[in-house]
Amino acid sequence: MSKTSYHFLRVGLAITFVWIGVLIFKQPEAWGGYLQPWAAGLLPVPMAQAMIGTAVLDIAIGAFLLVDFLPWLAALIGAVHLVIVLTVSGITDITVRDIGLLAAALALAIESLPQSMIAKIALGKKLSPETYRQGQSPEIK
């Protein structure tokens, strides 16, 4: 992925998460109506409080993505959040868009993973700090 594409994807997702968080803050009860009855019954707090928590999470994810701070972690948390949203809301004419956002969040998480983590995953072993201090890049096949 080019650097320009990465930034478009990151900023686009950031704006989307912040925007939806603000909308949920404005009308938490209305957004709670999208939950399936079985999911609403599992909430340990009132629906409005759960939705305000969701709004805070959405805004935090968006803020982290916007300032490019730990984007891999923000995108990964965003992807998990979207899976939960799709699970508890079901796939409807409204939530079907979340499938695209989920794919974008996963792509961003993978693209922004630190190289040291990619190397560990690819090689399946712990790499020594000397490898990185000497400017060597472990060979990934």
Automatic annotation (TrEMBL):
Keywords: Membrane, Transmembrane, Transmembrane helix. The chain crosses the membrane at residues 7-25, 45-66, 73-95, 101-123. This is DoxX family protein.
